[in-house]
Amino acid sequence: MNDEQILAGMHNTDTQEQAFRALMTKYQERLYLHIRRMKIEHTDADDVLQNTFIKVFRNIKKFQGKSELYTWLYRIATNEAITFLRQKKRRQSTSIDDESTTYQLEADTWFDGNEAQRKLKAAIDTLPNKQQRVFNMRYFDEMTYKDISAAVGTSVGGLKASYHHAVKKIEVFLKRD
Fold this sequence. Notes:
single chain; Rna Polymerase Sigma Factor, Chain: A; Arc Repressor Mutant, subunit A; 2 domains
């Protein structure tokens, strides 16, 4: 099913369940990886993804089509992940900015864990949260600046600057070794 068929199916009570399954099948992996890259562990990422799809199901009729469907989904997933991280930060005494998840790659079955990936992950972990999100969406998800702008609510110019700064910081980090 393409996005138009999914949306049409979601607005019809007879086909809503089938359309929602198609939406989940089409976007589940991409959204999961997006959530994981925001420093969320596998089991927590599953919960955030589930909350994302619950929110999507409840609010799909409010989707106005001003952006692509996946952009709208990314925005919901991003907001859910940020909410999760804020709640986690409140529960813990350490700051999420001080945590490094690089060590998790070695034992994580969802990532290959080769040396290049570990170095890139370590470099990304040094970036501020906003730069991490922009870098991940642009580099890994290959989203356009326009789509990222719709997903995170920042101007295209601001996103380009954030991405440029992130790339420069990553280059400096990788050249240190």
